[in-house]
Structures are given as C-alpha cells and as structure tokens.
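Researcher: Here's the sequence for the chain we discussed earlier.
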Amino acid sequence: MSKSELVSYIAEETGLTKAEASRALEAMMNGVIKGLKENGKVTLTGFCTFTAKKKAAKEGRNPKTGAPVVIPARVATTIKAGSKLKDALN
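Model: Thanks. This is the structure I predict for it:
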C-alpha cells in the first residue's frame, strides 16, 4: 500500500477529506520522528514499537573491490510488531 492509498483509506474510514487525512497522517509520522529524537522510543500499544539505536562507526569492505571502507556512526531505527498486528497477520 502506498502513502496515497493509505490516505484514501483513512479518508474513507473516518469521513475526512483526503487533504485532512493527509495532514493527519503527516502529523502522525512527524510525531513518531519527534518521539524517536526526544525519547528514542515510540510505542503504539498492540501495533508496534519504534526504537532508535545508536550504531558505532565500523570498518567494512567494498564488495566489488575488497578495499576497506569506514562506515560512519549513525542512528538506526527498528520496528517491532505488537501482538494485535501479529495476530491480524496470522
């Protein structure tokens, strides 16, 4: 499902216009980003948990040439499915 399809679905389910649904989805995504930046974790109980984890710099290899490459430190995001999501898919 693409973002535009999700916006259409939200609009149909809630009775909002597509513009309102799009703003609501953007607000939700921005809220998750803000929560990850400030707290490192966002939990949508039963649905999923987003977690930001700091990854240290490390040395890797260019797979084509085999030359060593420094992979810089970064923040990675993980998403763990909640029980309601798991149950809905199984």
